[in-house]
Design brief:
- The complex is a heterodimer of chains A (148) and B (132).
- Chain A is mainly alpha-helical and 148 residues long.
- Chain A has a 3-stranded antiparallel β-sheet with strand order 2-1-3, sandwiched between helices.
- The radius of gyration of chain A is 27 Å and the shape is elongated.
- The two termini of chain A are 41 Å apart.
- Chain B is mainly β.
- Classes of the chains: A mainly alpha (148), B mainly beta (132).
- At the A-B interface, helix 3, helix 4 and strand 3 of A face strand 1, strand 3 and helix 1 of B.
């Protein structure tokens, strides 16, 4: 899947997906010229209409696959960004948690945005942000937990 | 005779040995559009998802207006109130006592909606929505 997305990404960069409509069954004229789409140049040298149909169908299937991959690309990038923030937050917590035991903190990635004795004051300090930061009460982890 | 099962997961979470329990990131969004991000412990022994009331207040939710339910624990019981938010859970509970300081994701509404793989030796949790 990652390979498909990478390919889709490259296709965007190369203008491959500028071709926005399905290919007609037979119609060399409507296929973009070789300057627009070098990969299709072999079509012009193929004299068999049946072969042309097969090639066009195959190409269209690849193009559809690339489009589907592109549609997912936004979600994949969003998830990757979220994962990056989470990794930074975990790292920050593992290094600094002990300093804020018993306090509320607001984190975004590796940035401490606010801390305070109550959730109210911390939420107040970070209100109005486009995306909500991670807000937690840092528990006292001195004693092992036995379950609720 | 052994059984071979192959599972694939959408995401992988590394958790810390320095924290008791296994924490996962959780986002809650209320009907009014307000949202919060927090960490909750995975608790296979918990019937529901239960969060500190501080989050309900930040989401603009009147805790006591929800469906009341009493939860028992090893050392006593406490009340919590059910509310609808956007998570994977249709209903989550917010603890009534302000001293309640744990957030847990339990079976109903969370574990029953995910596939979960756990390799505690490596401090790694694998997660996917059930339908992924």
């Amino acid at each position: 899947m990652a390979d498909a997305l990478l390919v889709a990404d490259q296709h965007v960069d190369e203008g491959f997906l500028a071709l926005a409509s399905p290919l007609p069954a037979r119609g060399v004229q409507s296929i973009p010229d070789s300057q627009t789409l070098p990969a299709w140049s072999f079509l012009h040298t193929n004299n068999s209409n049946d072969r042309l149909d097969d090639d066009a169908t195959t190409l269209w299937a690849h193009l559809s696959g690339a489009r589907r991959a592109l549609a997912n690309l936004g979600q994949v990038r969003q998830r990757a960004e979220k994962d990056r923030l989470l990794r930074q937050e975990r790292q920050w917590l593992s290094e600094n948690r002990h300093r804020f035991s018993g306090r509320w903190i607001a984190l975004e990635g590796d940035q401490l945005l606010a801390h305070g004795a109550t959730s109210r004051e911390v939420f107040l300090k970070v209100s109005g942000r486009a995306t909500p930061p991670l807000v937690i009460l840092v528990a006292d982890e001195d004693l092992p937990f036995a379950g609720r | 005779m052994s059984t071979v099962a192959t599972l694939t997961f959408q995401s992988k979470h590394d958790y810390s040995r320095s924290v008791s329990g296994i924490e996962v990131p959780v986002g809650l969004k209320a009907g009014n559009g307000l949202s919060v991000r927090l960490l909750a412990k995975v608790d296979t022994g918990a019937t529901n998802c239960i969060f500190q009331r501080d989050y309900a207040e930040q989401l603009g939710i009147d805790v006591e207006s929800g469906e009341r339910r009493t939860f028992r624990t090893a050392v006593g019981a406490f009340d919590a109130y059910g509310h609808t938010v956007t998570l994977s859970c249709p209903v989550v509970y917010f603890a009534a006592p302000s001293g309640y300081s744990r957030n847990v994701v339990g079976r109903s509404g969370w574990l029953d909606r995910f596939r979960l793989g756990l390799v505690d030796h490596d401090l790694t949790l694998f997660l996917s929505h059930y339908d992924d």
